[in-house]
Amino acid sequence: MIASDLPPKPDFDALAAAAPASADRRTLVLALIGNLITSWSNNESLFIYVLMILLRTDRASAALTFATLNTTRARLDLIQRLARVTIGDKALNKELADLIGRFNDSTQVRNELNHCMFIFDAAGMITHTQSMRIVQTKNSLRYGETKPMDDARLQEMVRTTKEMTRINRDIWEFLPRLEAHVKMRKAAV
Length: 189
Fold this sequence. Notes:
Elements: H1 12-18, H2 23-55, H3 59-68, H4 72-86, H5 90-114, E1 116-120, E2 126-131, E3 134-136, E4 141-143, E5 146-148, H6 151-188
Antiparallel strand pairs: 1-2, 2-5, 3-4
Helix pairs in contact: 2-3, 2-4, 2-5, 2-6, 4-5, 5-6
């Protein structure tokens, strides 16, 4: 018989029987992931308003432009480039750059949890994540990293979600100042 590189097939009946005992922990993990992803999505969507202001257009046109760019990175690159030519106030431009930087930091945690395989033990507990990211170095190609889903990881998810809440509030505080600045510059021209 040829040896397989595949992991052993899970005992699905045993997992189903054991799952009720680990439901509380699994529900906590899934709720934290859901909160993190929802917060991230809300923050990403707020950048449509930044784009609307920088393009001096309506919300629908900004949303179409935003959706046409198929990655978050491309959307934020466009916003940063537009900011360089639209925002004349260095402090305001720095504030936008800082918001984008903080958002990008939280994006790493979101991506890690949104693009992974969850590993369960025999009791149905989520014990680890296996990254779907391919890591290529000069001499090797590795399949992503395995990380434990331990209490430290759960605390990281809580901290990241709290930071995303702060980012959300900060973007909402930033938008009227950005709008006033762009309108003032347009009126001056």
